[in-house]
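User: two proteins, same treatment. go.

Assistant:
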Amino acid sequence: MQTASPVARKVPRPRADALRNRERIVTAAREMFVEHGPEVPLDDIARRAGVGNATVYRNFPDRDALVREVVCSVMDRTAAAAEAALTETGDAFEALERFVHAAADERISALCPMVSSTFDQHHPDLEAARERVERLVAEVMERARAAGQLRSDVDVGDVVIAVAQLSRPPAGTDCFHADRFVHRHLQLFLDGLRAPARSTLPGAAVTLEDLRRP
């Protein structure tokens, strides 16, 4: 007597409406984290997303899971901007400019501090998203440097810090009110990155390893 071989079951794909609900939750959470910080009530996020509380908890079992998903999604979109800059732009420095402005639009400065304050920095999803962004930024910068357009005394960490600082609103200033100044000041910073350098920078170039040191 032969034993029937087990039939492999296909893992059901999420329904389209379930995927749309998840994306609405992540978008609403991103907006509210920027406006109010990571402690905004999940009920408020559900209301802005237009879904029930149960839908939020079905997708994200706790606040850390939701915050992590928001940060990873922002990093993914920032990485996509870097990839687009590499493939669509013939001018190497223009590719760097496009990336920097896109990163500011994703509100990196408001969201990334949550990484160290709310959950495990070494979660594999977060590390994968971070490494992808870092690799692509390094590639954009290296291409501009090889073209003789980027000064030689800067590194990836210099760009990361500048984008975070220049896109963060001053203390006591509404985040969205300050948006109209961000791209102006980022462009001033980018002009300072162009080669040939007009001055000697104090200290050494900031590397990614420098940023990771406690």
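Protein 2:
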Amino acid sequence: MTTLSFGPSPARRDALARRIRLLVAATIAYNVIEAVVALTAGTLASSSALIGFGLDSVIEVSSAAAVAWQFSAREHAVREARERTALRIIAVSFLALAAYVAVDAVRALAGTGEAEPSPLGIVIAALSLAIMPFLSAAQRRAGREIGSASAVADSKQTLLCTYLSAVLLVGLILNAVFGWSWADPVAALAIAGIAVKEGRDAWRGKGCCAPTAQGQACANSPVR
């Protein structure tokens, strides 16, 4: 009689945990640099969008640090026990990001300040748009295979940064070329809505693909 094996083997699980730790470390390192550059450029250009983008990077560091803490445990049982706490931290990070982006977008639409063009901001937004999708996809694949809702949720945080990078890049370019200061905050409000949804899903433990006998199947029930 053949015994069905559910999920990855212990050796594969350890390899996936190491991969997630490396991806999270890379995400933290890049976001620290991104935060410093964006906050500096935003201050110099009086750009609320760039400052908001820099603060988003700080929030992303907290989310990635939560997953790093979870996967710093060598034992699989300990990592599972830390899952709920990591998800709560990620959810709060999403909601904090949504609140800041929404308030900042409304302030920008109300005309509280006019940002100057920022070549440095355009460069950092373009770099993030090129780098973040690969980090997000790699972590999401590993998280789904190992069955970690927190790793998948953190990868969505990274993917959200990609959307914000695109919004920021378009807004900075339109402002620099045409002087359309309204373009960025309007798109940012849509991003805030996405962040609220992802924060709610992370709080409920949704979005993880857990291993099954056939491979992976979507497990949209809350993590227990």
